[in-house]
Specification:
CATH architecture of the domain at 267-399: Alpha-Beta Complex
CATH topology of the domain at 267-399: Aspartate Aminotransferase, domain 1
Strand content: 5-15%
CATH superfamily of the domain at 267-399: Aspartate Aminotransferase, domain 1
CATH class of the domain at 267-399: Alpha Beta
Bound molecules: pyridoxal-5'-phosphate
Largest sheet: 7 strands, mixed
Number of strands: 14
Distance between the termini: 60 Å
Order of helices and strands: EHHEHHEHEHEHEHEHEEHHHEHEHEEHEH
Number of helices: 16
Helix content: 40-55%
């Protein structure tokens, strides 16, 4: 294996973001392939016994077992770290493996976590159900309320955990304030950046300590594989996260890593075009429906904050109908082009009714607390021609009486 310029930080640090996305992290085999190779291997062989002994002793660089390192996964990790502007990154099997690893690697019995109430259902399950089983206390706050974060701090608070924008209510967290508050109290802030990716929002620039991803979403971008990643300082990744990951094994498969890695080459183009389409479709819908939840529109209560911390507002937004579940389902059933699907980040436009799908499991009380109303619809806007999307939405809204 030959490392290329893409693995030399003294060179990649000078590269601009687009170059990092296409060249960052690349290794080449002796064949000199243009497109990075896929290394489907669990183990490695050695020329002699001294070599393997030196690798196990940590005296020589090189792979020993794919739970510890794999070339395809290592390429993905380096490319994401470069795009994020992070010192280090480790990849996991899914976004939820990434969130679980990012939290459990640093929390112990007796610690306290503060988490935003509006969150991906499984993230809330970890905070509400899993962590308490291990003696980790929690406080759930309104993530948009800066004072609530401060009021929740206790002497044993170890972690702040939130996503911004939140799924599916599109509430934002003021990262500069909340991550700054965490820093001032020696609390580690963990930001789930799945909705934006480093192309649209870079939490580290606003003081976040750890950025965690579902790479299943925009990073893959074509709905093919599940994957996750955690970015942070070298000290956090190597000393806190790695011992946990190497011994518990939530690793990303090399095949999935390779798919996501190739997806990153087009991430910026996709994320920007999908954001443009989402803004145009949001502008078209606004006025036709009672309430829009789109941070890129001036009607969003945190529109100014969105402009401060996001480069563009991403492919996802929600809106609320007065006719409850029946009317929301009627819109979905009338769609001809846009698919009914609960996935996001895909290059295909997908729409779902969160109350009966992604947020079914949190129950009516949980949904009320999080603001997931019966008349809410969430859309992931894809790469189709915006006029086709507008026409489809127009006819579906008409059929549902809007
Ligand atoms: C999808 C998603 C996750 C979970 O990711 P998986 O890859 O499905 O495990 C976590 N957080 C957010 C915000 C998500 O959208």
């Amino acid at each position: 294996m030959k490392k290329t310029t893409g693995t030399d930080r003294s060179i990649t640090r000078k590269w601009r973001p687009a170059t990092r996305a296409v060249r960052g992290g690349t290794w080449r085999s002796e064949h000199g392939e243009t497109s990075e190779a896929l290394f489907l291997t669990s183990g490695y062989t050695y020329d002699d016994a001294a070599t393997v002994a030196a690798r196990f002793a940590g005296e020589q660089e090189g792979m020993t077992y794919s739970r510890l390192q794999n070339p395809s996964v290592a390429m993905l990790e380096e490319r994401i770290a470069l795009m994020e502007g992070a010192e280090a990154c480790r990849a996991q099997a899914t976004g939820m493996a990434a969130m679980t690893t990012a939290l459990l690697c640093q929390l112990s019995a007796g610690d306290h976590i503060v988490s935003a109430r509006a969150a991906f259902g499984s993230c809330r399950w970890i905070v509400d159900n899993l962590l308490p089983r291990f003696g980790i206390e929690k406080t759930i706050v309104d993530g948009a309320d800066n004072a609530a974060w401060e009021a929740a701090i206790r002497p044993n608070t170890k972690v702040f955990f939130f996503e911004t924008p939140a799924n599916p209510t599109m509430e934002l967290v003021d990262m500069e304030y909340v991550c700054g508050l965490a820093r001032a109290h020696g609390i580690v802030s963990v930001v789930d950046n799945a909705f934006c990716t480093p192309v649209l929002q870079r939490p580290l620039e606003f003081g976040a300590d750890v950025v965690a991803y579902s790479a299943t979403k925009l990073m893959d971008g074509q709905g093919r594989v599940l994957a996750g990643a955690v970015c942070g300082s070298e000290a956090f990744i190597n000393e806190v996260l790695l011992p946990f990951q190497r011994n518990t094994g939530p690793n990303c498969s090399p095949f999935n890593a390779w798919i996501v890695f190739k997806g990153l080459e087009t991430l910026e183009l996709r994320a920007r075009r999908q954001s443009e389409n989402a803004l145009k479709l949001g502008q078209f819908i606004e006025g036709r429906v009672p309430r829009m939840l789109h941070p890129g529109l001036p009607s969003h209560p945190q529109h100014d904050l969105a402009a401060r911390q996001m480069d563009a507002c991403g492919p996802i937004f929600s809106f609320i109908l007065d006719g409850g579940r029946a009317q929301a389902h009627a819109v979905l059933d009338a769609l001809e082009l846009i698919d009914i699907s609960n996935n996001i980040g895909d290059s295909k436009s997908l729409m779902c009714h969160p109350a009966s799908t992604t947020h079914h499991n949190v129950g009516p009380e949980g949904r009320a607390e999080m603001g997931v109303e019966e008349g809410m619809l969430r859309i992931n806007v894809g790469l189709e021609d915006i006029d086709d999307l507008i026409e489809d939405m127009d006819q579906a809204l008409k059929k549902a009486g809007l």
